[in-house]
Amino acid sequence: MIKQPLVSIIIPMYNAEKYIEETIKSVMAQTYQNWEIIVVSNASTDRSEELIALLRDARIQMITLDRNSGGPAKPRNIGLKHAKGEYIAFLDADDLWTKDKLEVQLSHMLENNINFSSTGKTNINESSIEINFKAGILAKMNARNSKKDICDLIKYRFIFTSSVMISSHLKVHFNEEKKYIAVEDLCAWLNVFKNPETKYAYIEKNLLKYRIVGQSISARGMEYKHATKAYICILNFILKNELYEHMKCFYRACARDFSLNFLQKILGEKK
Q1: Centroid of chain to Cα 105
Q2: What is the pLDDT at residue 147?
Q3: Parallel, antiparallel, or unpaired for β 60-64 and 116-124?
Q4: Rounded CA gap, 264 and 271, in Å?
Q5: What DSSP string describes 178-200?
C-alpha cells in the first residue's frame, strides 16, 4: 500500500476506565500508523479521561461533553465534525482491534475502489479472553448469510460499528433521538447504503474483538428489546424513503428471527 491516508478513529466514551486504556493501546499497536483518535467523553465521572491523558500521544484528541446525552450518537456526531481524516473508523470504548486491522481494511478498500466496509469479529469476555460459542446449527446458518446490500442488512444486521471504515466523502449521521438509542448505528448504515455513491465490501476476516459483558437473563431481555427497536428503525427507514421493494426483506427478517428464537429454545442454544 503506497498511499497512506489519514484515518480518523472516533471513540464515544462514558465511564470506561476498566477498558479504555486497552482499547486505545490496540490502536497504538496498529501496523498502520497514520491515524488520529478523537475520544468524545459523554460526561464521564470516573478515571477514563485521566487514563487517556497518561498515554501521552499527540494523535489523541479529547473532547468532553458537559452533559450526558444518553447514548453514543451525539458523541459520534461530534467526533465526525472534528475528524480530519480521509477515512473514518469507529471504535467503542470497550472493544479491541487486531494489530493489522487498519492496514488490512484500508488496503482492501484502496485496491478495490471501496468507500465503505466492515469486517468479521471474534467475541471476547470482560477479561479480553476469546469466547468460543458452540458452533451449532444457528451459528452455521448465520455464517452463510450474504452481506452485501440493504436487503442483507435488513435481514441479518451484520455490521458491527467498531469494525466500520468509511470514506469521509460519504456523509454519516447518527440519529440522536432517544427512541433510537442502541440502534442508531443500524439506522446510520441503512442511510449510507441508500446513497448511490456507496461502494460497500464485507471483509471476511475477524479484525474486531467485540466485547460481550454480561450474559444474565436481564442482559438477554435487553437484547430482545433492542431487536424490537431495530425493527422500528428498519420500518421507518423503508416508509420514509418509499423503498417498498424492501418490505419483503423486512418480513423475512421478522420471520427469520422468530424461527431462530424458536429453534434456540428447542436446541437449548444461548445467544
Answers
A1: 14
A2: 85
A3: unpaired
A4: 8
A5: GGGTTTHHHHHHHHHHHSTT--E
Q: What is the mean pLDDT of the segment spanning 18-32?
A: 98
Cα torsion through 9, 10, 14, 19, rounded to 10: -20
- 87-116 pLDDT, tens digit per residue, is 999 999 999 999 999 999 999 999 999 999
At 208, phi and psi to the nearest 5? -110, 140
Q: Which residues are paired to 36 by β-bridges?
A: 8
Q: How many helices (H) and strands (E) does the chain have?
A: 9, 8
Query: Under CATH, what is the fold of the domain 7-267?
Result: Spore Coat Polysaccharide Biosynthesis Protein SpsA; Chain A (3.90.550)
Task: Count CA atoms closer than 13 A to 138's CA, side-chain side.
Answer: 19
Residue 42 in contact with residue 12, Cβ under 8 Å? yes
Measured distance CA(58)–CA(78) in Å, rounded: 19
